[in-house]
Amino acid sequence: MRLLFASSEVFPLAKTGGLADVSASLPRALAALGHEVRIALPAYPAARAALVESRKLGPVPGLSGATLVGGRLPGTELPVVLVDAPALFERPGGPYGDASGRDWPDNARRFHGFARALCAIALDRAGLGWRPELVHCNDWQTGLVPALLSREAVRPATVFTIHNQAYQGLFDRAQFDALGLPDDWWAPDALEFYGGFSFLKAGLVFADQLTTVSPTYARQLLELEHGCRLDGLLRHRRADFSGILNGIDAEVWNPAADPHLASPYDRATVDAGKRANKAALQRELGLPEADKVPLLGLVGRLVEQKGIDLVVEVIEAWRDRPLQWVLLGGGEAAWERRLRALAAACPERVAVRIGYDEGLAHRIEAGADFFLMPSRFEPCGLNQMYSQRYGAIPVVHRTGGLADTVVDIFARPDPGSAATGLVFDEPTAVALAQALERGFSLYRNPAAWLALRRNAMAGDFSWRRSAEQYLGVYRRALAAGADPR
Ligand code: ADP
Ligand code: GLC
Prior knowledge:
Layout: E1 2-6, H1 18-32, E2 36-42, H2 45-50, E3 52-59, E4 67-72, E5 79-84, H3 86-89, H4 107-122, E6 134-138, H5 144-149, E7 157-162, E8 170-171, H6 173-179, E9 192-193, E10 196-198, H7 199-206, E11 209-212, H8 215-221, H9 231-236, E12 241-243, H10 270-285, E13 295-302, H11 308-317, E14 324-331, H12 333-345, E15 350-354, H13 358-367, E16 370-373, H14 383-389, E17 393-397, H15 400-405, E18 422-424, H16 429-443, H17 446-458, H18 464-480
Parallel strand pairs: 1-2, 1-6, 2-5, 6-7, 7-11, 11-12, 13-14, 13-16, 14-15, 16-17, 17-18
Antiparallel strand pairs: 3-4, 4-5, 8-10, 9-10
Residues 17-19, 22, 163-164, 213, 246, 378-382, 401 line the site of alpha-D-glucopyranose.
């Protein structure tokens, strides 16, 4: 199959979260299964700089000043196409906002431009001499692609994947008019959404097939409580909608060959390996080197979704207990301040790093005893899978992909069996604290703790199965297309 994989972030060219990891590792898995995949993303300055074998291609017809840049994804053979539209993407800051985290005011225009370029590629109108059979779109930034393609008599099939239903690409009528979108799209069965319009909804209405990133989140999205006001639409499209669990890149996240670690280790050497990495992490962050003190790690976007407030509540309640907390994240300024203050108040117990640091994220996985993910909702979540690979026991709220990837020690009382972590049912600080108490009692029993760690490390989160499930979805999308392609 010839596949165009469209995403607003792709590791290591541009990353704010798990979408970037998936946008690199899924195409790689599909290519390994023998398919022809090209990845397309905007030419943010950092992405341009990091692209391998970069070369200028032709202009994008109809998008003034825009050209395509070809190259390879670093560390792989995967072909990448960057949409180079300086007016839209050539600016400092992140993919979606400025350095202080404020969304760019012209995001509708930016990702409409990206979508138009993607359509030109998909229809082979941008001079690549290559015509994909299917375009796989991801999250709201690519939501207009299936809508725009639906107006073509001859077009590739389309699949749209929801990585997070909470980010909907919502804009107002003035922006709709400014983009010159077709009038008939301003309707409840098209893009119109509670008085504005939504890029995400465009993808959900017009793509041939829809997916999301775990079976449990797929079920949750059909419910009023989790559907973010799009549950009705998804129920209507239920026959075309499925949940496929994300995989992980087992090369990038491999404790036995991780260039970010001073002491690589595997399942057989986990005891000594984690001890060495824990000590190194404590030194790096200025915490007392204490082997017996449980070290709890967290890496993530500091937003309400991730349940950071629950973690702060527990840290504050347990100020006097011999525990070490290591938190790495960025996001809402109020949380960044709160965490910094916490670290300043308890320098012996709490280390906080604000910002994005890929290497430290790996070292936290390697050095932590427990890894915290008390997310209120979590479409899939990748860190709980990285943690298991690194023998850091995940402590998670039973929701979305967390429920699908972590087996609680009580579900399998014998830690020699299938247990891989601690799972709690309510997104509250009390429930998180209770789960941690259960974890600490195991931690104090070295044989049981080692067995749990080894079990967690034995899990298979590779892409192969999930990539095959995507191929099934692609085939359904191709079969559904009434148009000759
Ligand atoms: P989400 O996509 O909702 O942010 P995921 O768990 O799917 O959550 O993916 C998060 C990814 O981003 C992981 O690879 C994680 O290591 C990484 N990450 C998040 N915040 C940071 C940070 N501050 N520094 C380094 N990596 C981070
Ligand atoms: C989103 C979700 C996260 C998921 C990631 C990759 O950012 O919040 O749960 O793992 O996308 O699919």
